[in-house]
Amino acid sequence: MRQRPKLVLVGQFSALPWVFEAAERAGADLILVPRGDDDAERARKAAGVVELLPLDVDGDPDAALAALVERFGREPFDGIMAGNEKAVPFVARAARVLGLTGLTEEAADVVRDKRSMRRLLRAAGLAVPGFVAVGHPDDWADAAGLRFPVVVKPANGYSSLGVIRVDSAAELERAVRTTWALCHAHLGYDGGAADGEPADGWGVLVEEYLDGPEISAESLVHRGRVRVCAISYKGELSGPYFEETTLRAPAQLPADVLAAVEREVVGAHHAFGITEGTTHTELRLVSGTRPVLLEMGARIGGGGFMHHLVHVSSGIDLAAEAVRIHLGREPECWTREPVGTGHAAAYLVPVGGGGRIVRVHGLDEVREEPCVDHVAQTVGPGALLRPYPDWSGYPAIVLSQHASDAAAVEFRDHLSRTLRVEYEARS
Ligand code: ADP
Ligand code: CA
Ligand code: CA
Question: How far is CA 135 from the centre of its chain?
């Protein structure tokens, strides 16, 4: 009897179930490389996991790769997939060394650096805002010639950490220094002392503000062919900080706008050289109609929860298809057309003022609502949640499904009225 295929899943957080459950649907066993901050007991028990393989992917990637090669030598596995943004370059490298399906290392590096994405989009003739890469906080004035408002952000950030809208040149220096300080605290940048060249990957990007609602596109890619599976609506986020709170799919947009989004997203995959796997692309619709890419991640968005929005709205089993692709197989939706079952929504409970979390009031009632599929809580009582423009986690995420977009909007309004985060009193 042929053994079940085995997939190495790198850094998928075990508090979030979607990718783990999808592996079972795809008939694959998982060798989980747990995230450094994951709970080992929970990781071991996650759906589909047959083996834990702790590796120091962030701290010592060479040793991690050597250990992975050694594990492959003892008993080969059939694929490897990234479970978070930071793991993408390591997984590309491991795939090349082991001869498994994956991205090229060049493409993996491109989607980890917002400056590279901007340059390649511009070279491909796709839409880009004016932008300037600032390599050192003292060089903030390099960006003063852009058309304001602008957005200042880390070149290699996540979750809108350190992303700040700036309305005039007079406020630019302060914002660049604030963003750099957050990169120093969380992304390992140096403190901005004026000596030496900045290390590879460090830097701040300043770009012109794109005015219009935000959307995201989830795609599958296999042998260079891209399928945009779902487009979600994130609404108006005007800053100065960009805390995401809601997504709904399918986005209620005219067919010509959806087609333009698809062209931009497919073009970006080609420009970046993304040929295998799954991607999460964020865009703004300038004036409500003209799509401009913000960034792309070569993984399932939201730690896996974007799977929910795709699965409900399009019927495509995004996470299971991703597992198949990384095992070198063709996605099933290439030959069989699934159908969506409704309107999906995600609500990210806002951090608000932040602090040490006691509990989220109202969640127990929300769990009982028939439209709610899942409530994810990745931080427990006592965890410190820092407010934007800093970031350290979401209090909770509620995933639901509805008969119409209007019903999804109504439920979001209900959640924003009823859920309340309680923090410890500051002493
Ligand atoms: P991150 O990797 O931190 O998510 P993004 O580039 O996606 O970085 O920026 C986070 C958010 O900031 C975006 O979702 C968007 O709301 C806002 N933002 C970033 N760049 C721009 C821009 N040029 N114009 C308007 N909003 C922007
Ligand atoms: Ca990102
Ligand atoms: Ca983003």
Answer: 24
How does DSSP assign 257-300, residue by residue?
Answer: HHHHHHHHHHHHHHHHT--SEEEEEEEEEETTTEEEEEEEESS-
Distance 210 CA to ligand 1 centre (A): 9
- Quickly count: other Cβ atoms within 10 Å of residue 65's Cβ: 17
Helix axes 18-25, 318-326, angle to 10 degrees: 70
Residues 177 and 320 in one domain: no
Residue 263 has a pLDDT of 98
Does residue 209 line the site of ligand 1, with CB under 6 A? yes
Residue nearest ligand 1's atom 2 by CA: 158
H/E stretch holding 85: none
Please report the pLDDT score of residue 198 as a whole number: 55
Instruction: Indicate if 350 and 413 belong to the same structural domain.
Output: yes
Kindly indicate the confidence band of residue 216, based on its pLDDT and cuts at 50, 70 and 90.
very high
Q: Judge if the beta carbon of residue 43 lies within 6 A of ligand 1.
A: no
Distance, CA of 310 to CA of 340 (rounded, Å)? 8
Is the distance from the beta carbon of residue 294 to the nearest atom of ligand 1 less than 6 Å?
Answer: yes
Give the separation between CA 30 and CA 331, rounded to whole angstroms: 18
Full-model pTM? 0.96
| 4: DSSP letter | P
Task: For residues 219 and 194, state if they share a domain.
Answer: no
Pairing verdict, β 49-52 and 29-33:
parallel
Q: Is residue 248 domain-shared with residue 387, that is, in the same domain?
A: yes
CA-nearest residue for atom 10, ligand 1, is: 160
Sign of CA dihedral 41, 47, 51, 56: negative
Residue closest to 304 by CA, chosen among 7, 6, 9:
9
Distance CA 54, CA 34 (A): 6
**What is the pLDDT confidence band of residue 2, given thresholds at 50, 70 and 90?**
low
Task: Confirm or reject: Cβ of 158 under 6 Å from ligand 1.
Answer: yes
Residues 6+ apart with CB under 8 A from 25: 317, 320
| Span from the CA of 273 to the centroid of ligand 3 (angstroms) | 20
Q: Which residues contact 61 (CB under 8 A, 6 or more apart)?
A: 90, 93
Domain assignment of residue 123, yes or no:
no
Using the predicted structure, report yes or no on whether residue 397 has a pLDDT greater than 60. yes
C-alpha to C-alpha distances, 38 to 15, 50, 56, 86, nearest whole angstrom: 8, 16, 13, 15
Q: Are residues 136 and 218 in the same domain?
A: no
